[in-house]
Known about the structure:
It is found in: Cell membrane. This is Glycine betaine-binding protein OpuAC. This protein has helices at 11-31, 45-48, 61-72, 85-97, 112-115, 142-145, 147-155, 160-171, 176-186, 188-194, 214-229, 241-250, 266-271, and strands at 52-54, 79-81, 104-108, 118-120, 132-139, 205-210, 233-238, 255-261, 276-293. It is of the alpha/beta class and 305 residues long. It has two domains: 45-130 and 290-304, D-Maltodextrin-Binding Protein, domain 2, CATH 3.40.190; 132-285, Dipeptide-binding Protein, Domain 3 (Dipeptide-binding Protein, domain 3, Roll), CATH 3.10.105. Residues 1-39 have low confidence and may be disordered.
Amino acid sequence: MKKFTRxxxxxxxxxxxxxxxxxxxxxxxxxxxxxxxxxxxxxSVGESVDxxxxxxxxxxxxxxxxxxxxxxxxxxxxxxxxxxxAAMTASLKKAYDKEEPIIVTGWSPHWKFTEYDxxxxxxxxxxxxxxxxxxxxxxxxxKEDMPEAYQILKQFKWTQDDMGEIMVAIHDGEKAExxxxxWLDANEEKATAWTEGVEKVDGDEIKLAYVAWDSAIAxxxxxxxxxxxxxxxxxxxxxxxxxxxxxxxDGSADAALAAWLPVTHKTYAxxxxxxxxxxxxxxxxxxxxxxVPEYMDITSIEDLK
Length: 305
C-alpha cells in the first residue's frame, strides 16, 4: 500500500485533492471492488467462475455424482467440464496461484490437499454420500486360479497417509515405480503382512487394471512390486473407470485395486453384479465431492445457486 506524506497545502489545493480522492474512491467502488479471491464482489459465485465446475474424465464415478448434484441442487445454469485428473489439477494450480475462484471435482486421498489449502463444499442433500472405501475387486475364479495372488490382494490394507506419501513423491517429480519402491523400503513390515502365509510362484502372469487417479497409480505400483517379489509377472493397464470394471467382469483383467464404493462406482458395481468378486477393503474413510480453495467465501453446494 502506498504511503502518502501530508504536506502543508493551500485551501484550493486541499479542495482539489479532496475531489480527486473522492473520484478515485468512486471508481474503486464502481469498477474495482475486489474481494480477497480476486473476484468482483458484485458478482455471484457462479458469475465469478463462469458457471463452470472443472471435472475429470467423463467415465469417472465422481462425474456421474456431480451430474446428479447439478440436478438435485437445481444448478441448471452450470456446466461440468470434462478432461483428465492432470488437467483438473493444472487448472486448480493456475487459479490458486492467482487467488482466483475455481470449483473442481475432488477426492481424497490426493496430493492437492497437501499442496494447497482446500475445502470440500458441504453436501446437505447427501448426493456424494459420506465416507467411502477403496475396494479391491477380482474376476470370478481368481481365488481358485491364483490362490497366492488372491491372498495377497485380500491382505492388502494400508492408510491414507501411506498412500499420500507416494502420491506426494510422484507429484514432486519421482517416477511412480521409484516412489513405490522407496515407500516399501521404508515400510517393510507392511509388505510382510500382505504376503504373510503366501508361497512364492514361478513367473505366473497376472493382469491389473487401474484408472489414472493418483491414488490408483500409487496403490497399483506398490502392489506390482510386491507381487513381482513373490514371483509374479505383473502387467498394469491404465484405463478409465468403465473399462476397468468391464475388464475385471469379462476376465481380461484379473483384478483392480481402485473400486470406490458405495457411491462413486455404484453404477458399475450394480451393472456387473455377479460378474466380479469384492475381495476386500484396502483403505477406509476416503471421500469425494466439490472442492474449492479456502480463500473462497462459500461453504456449501447450496451457495452455488
